[in-house]
Design brief:
alpha/beta, D-Maltodextrin-Binding Protein, domain 2, 5-stranded mixed β-sheet, 13 helices, 43% helix, 18% strand, globular
Amino acid sequence: MNERNPASAFRLSRRAMLAGTAAALCTGGLLSRAAWGQTVSRIIVPFPAGGAADYMGRLLSEKLKDTLGRTVIVDNRPGAGTRVAAEVLKNAPADGSTVLLAPVDPMFIGPLIYSNMRFNPATDFTAITDVAGVQFGLAVGANSPIKTLADFVKAARSHPAEHSIGISTVGTLLHFLAVEFVAQSRTGCTLVPYRGGAAMVTELMGNQIAAGMDAITTFTEFHRAGKLRVLAVAGEKRADALPGVPTFAESGFPNLVTSSRYLLYVRANTPPDAAAQWYQSVRKVLAMPDVREKLGRAGYDILPGATSDEVARYSSALAARWTPVIKASGFKGD
């Protein structure tokens, strides 16, 4: 990625979008099978089946089959910090039949930590729109004596070897947020990577690890059920799904304020009418009350729907905030 302009990966020309919208409307809002090139559309999800991202993808696919007028399937391609899924999209036909539902942060983080990237986010993909926001949180097991973030920091400073923090993936914003927390809390905790949030939650509930950091969508239902305890979230404000949980800023860490968003990507050079059809259909689905309720209950932030320019500004600000942290960490993924 061009580091001087990391937001370039997320731009979709307004002229192209408008032209595509007009074309889609002229055809009654639905494209022909010939225009798509495939009879089935795919939503690639870069995380395992059964997780929160998979839930969102399947919720969208169920609704999109009506708004798009075609079968939409979810294709789970976990691994390598979302790079596996991104490579699948790069190798898919650029006809709009395949999209990627993925967090924004790996797109700008990848070029900073991997030397063998087999795709270029700035030239290979285009972001159509955002889908949902997601906050990160730190959680402990329900049986842990730790009740607050201050309790965790105090205990970890006294016994860092006994207070490792699990993370569900490496090379993502979550990973570097955890790095920043360890540095700012001066706890010296070890970060333990897992292959997905489900495996981490299992060990967290079994008291095999002291704490875990992940998107709150991984923790929300377990927190409500009293099986885990989320100590703090990293958003600018408390998460709507967990209103009783304070932010890191409220808990004494004013610089630990960040979040991510899931975006819908297509191959670069996808026909504008196909991209416009996805945009219209996704925005229609996300306006449905039952979809908003389900995503909100799962822990996602409901977004008003960003334009391509707004997505570019958001991603640029996120990259500017975290690029120095990532470089200073010295982490390399290969």
